[in-house]
Design a protein that fits this description.
CATH class: Alpha Beta
Order of helices and strands: EEEEHEHEHHHEEHH
Radius of gyration: 17 Å
CATH topology: Rossmann fold
Distance between the termini: 20 Å
Number of domains: 1
Number of helices: 7
Strand content: 15-25%
CATH architecture: 3-Layer(aba) Sandwich
Structural class: alpha/beta
Number of strands: 8
CATH superfamily: Alpha/Beta hydrolase fold, catalytic domain
Largest sheet: 8 strands, mixed
Shape: globular
Strand order of the largest sheet: 1-2-4-3-5-6-7-8
Length: 261
């Protein structure tokens, strides 16, 4: 079992969820739109020991003010994150991202490879591959009321948030910025990854229907596998135990492959 630690800031975008930085393996987790890496705070209890677990927060999240955003869009945000990961002590690294976080994790993986710091494994969850061009209708131009109505039409907010004007006021700038990153992102041909890629999807997630996740195999020359979990777009939470078990098995595999015996 990984040892729980208090969240500590490692750099402007990286927070340590568990570990000390001296472990033999690193897992970097990226959140979905509207969330922070706090969504991964329960993961250490179900993951193997000896893993440095970091959260990579996009702009606009505590402790940064909501207006502190990286200009240029998603590739520029990914480049900033990649630079901060590359500056850490070298460890075999696995990237995990869900939804918008999956797109960011993919771009970060490419950036790290270009910097000569390739990741050992990329896990993309709940997001169709960018080269397929399948995107939901743009939302970032909408005012607050219309924005949340459109959001709820595809990915329903929890009731406690929907019914709280104060929470909606707080979340709107961050969520709109996240969706702007998604709306303005256009995939351009990038160097093919060489690391293994694993794709997770929810069985009832309309955003990744018709086997879309399997097309992630086109973006790597390494091994590819996919795994379907019960649940909708947020199977990450409803099937958390199964997801964490799968990630734990994957980390054990990386450890066997990348670390000396």
């Amino acid at each position: 079992m990984a040892v729980r630690t208090r969240n500590t800031r490692v750099s402007s975008r990286l927070t340590r969820i568990a570990g000390t930085g001296a472990e033999g393996l690193r897992l970097v987790c990226l959140p979905y739109a509207g969330a922070s890496t706090m969504i991964y705070r329960s993961w250490p209890a179900g993951l193997p020991a000896g893993v440095d677990i970091l959260g990579a927060d996009p702009p606009g999240r505590a402790p940064d003010p909501a207006g502190r955003q990286t200009p240029g869009g998603l590739p520029e945000v990914a480049a900033v994150m990649a630079a901060e990961i590359a500056a850490l002590p070298r460890l075999p690294t696995v990237l995990f991202g869900h939804s918008l976080g999956a797109l960011l994790a993919y771009e970060v993986a490419v950036e790290l490879a270009l910097r000569g710091v390739p990741v050992e494994h990329l896990v993309v969850s709940g997001c169709a591959p960018p080269h397929r061009g399948e995107k939901t209708a743009p939302m970032s131009h909408l005012g607050q009321e219309e924005f949340f109505a459109a959001w709820n039409a595809t990915m329903e907010l929890p009731e406690n948030i929907r019914d709280s004007p104060e929470l909606l006021d707080l979340l709107y700038p961050m969520m709109r910025y996240d969706i702007w990153l998604y709306d303005t992102y256009e995939w351009r041909r990038r160097p093919v990854l060489t690391c293994p890629v694993t794709a997770f999807a929810g069985s009832a997630d309309g955003l990744t229907a018709d086997g879309a996740m399997n097309s992630w195999r086109d973006l790597t020359s390494g091994a590819f596998r996919s795994r379907l979990f019960p649940g909708d777009h947020f199977f990450l939470h409803s099937s958390e135990r199964e997801v964490v078990e799968e990630v734990g098995d994957l980390l054990d595999g990386v450890r066997r492959r990348a670390l000396p015996h």
